[in-house]
Amino acid sequence: MSTPTFAVFDIDGVLADVGHRLHHLRGPRKDWGGFFAAAAADPVLEPGRRRVLEAAGQHALVYVSGRPERLRATTQRWLDDNAFPAGALLLRRDRDRRPARVVKPELLRRISRRGAVVLVVDDDAAVCAALVAAGYPVERAGWAQPPPELTAAQEEDGRT
Q1: 105 occurs within a structural domain
Q2: Local confidence pLDDT in tens for the 160 residues of the chain
């Protein structure tokens, strides 16, 4: 029996365009409830979808996000409603506020116990650097440059 191989995709900024909800993160008081409530309406980033479809024929898919676990149903519904192929969904624990560059390598170590991670696609430069340093094959999603609000949410606020 051969060892499974996994292609891992970040969601926000890679598959989902979060631009329409970034206004919730501007200003001195961030509206995290509003930001996450609007996630169900994220438009699909078509280059990300194409990359998932390319990988789906060769590897098991895993969707990894710094979104909190309480958004599992919303996130899974979004993936299903937007016709993404089936795959495991890994999210951060609800009260985990560590930077994405710390959380995501930890999530990938869980995947690596079951098989070889052969591709990771993410848009966050700090996450990509941490994953490369941990020995994972990383492809930076060049189709969407993360806006400062999203980078701060991932790296400073530990929220997505």
Answers
A1: yes
A2: 678 999 999 999 999 999 999 999 888 888 988 999 999 999 999 999 999 999 998 999 999 998 899 999 999 999 999 999 999 999 998 888 888 899 999 999 999 999 999 999 999 999 999 999 999 999 999 887 766 776 666 566 656 6
| CATH code of the domain containing 32 | 3.40.50.1000
Q: What pTM does this model have?
A: 0.90
Q: Which domain holds residue 66?
A: 5-155
Instruction: Read off the tokens for 84.
Output: 């993404």
Are 6 and 117 within 8 A, CB to CB?
Answer: yes
DSSP 59: S
